[in-house]
Design a protein that fits this description.
Helices cover 39% and strands 13% of the residues.
Length: 296
Amino acid sequence: MTAIVTGQDGSERQAFIAGWRSLNRPTPIRELRTVSPAPGPLAMIDPSRVDAPEDSGIVCGSTALFADFLGNILTQARDDDVVVCARPALVHDGGAGAWGALGADPGVLAGAARRVTVAWTEATPLLSLHGRAAELSTRGLVAAERAQEAERQVGQFVADLARAPGFESAIGLARQAGTGMAGGLAFLLAAMGARLVDAGTEIAHRSGWKDQVAGADVVIALCAEDDLLAAETGPLVQLSTIAAQAAVPLVVVGAAPGLPRRHLARMGIGAAHDRAGRTTWELGRALAATWAARSV
């Protein structure tokens, strides 16, 4: 039997492998080789830092605090390729906050992100009937009234931006897949010339996941407990598709706890395990007892 483990934290992957081997030393287990979705250094946005409290007067947070981050990305993109990715969060202003905080002439920013690749982990567009605001409301993460107001504000921002020279395509871009990522920063970068790609598809292709998974008997994905969307967004979605096509069970640890088996099956997940206060080493040992033949 051969097992493959994947997860964002390298030390956590190693701890899991150590726990697995403590019970099943002869059973091969290795890390899933993963590379960046595009050439260039990877810059990760964490929009959870800007989620606004209910009484702040800001609908669904503001991206203004990421103006410096965005400025650094644009500066770096003058001389080098840059890849931008982000974690899911509630913030949603279409990038208006960051745009206003930058305070630059639109003529200077038009085309400034041509060497940037935005690797989206959520296909949700910024605007549309099934856009970012609708998704937040449907998931129950934001009240419907707040979501509707956010949609109105973002729509107005996009319309205003489309009047600026070099940004005439903004309205069409706002309806493209992935532009709702990071509160709309993905849209803003795309409006400035960035390329939009599906992070999961590109990572899987560039990393050769199909060949790796085809030679395994089980694939284990380690997710953070507070990443409630991990099992439904990003590269894990692509990994579940590849595993299903190869008839290899995908086991998710930390995300999607308590979901019915039929729901997990629709997501391409063979099983989901709760961390239940256990260390990663303990989880490795526990899953080895479940998924591999015990060695004596």
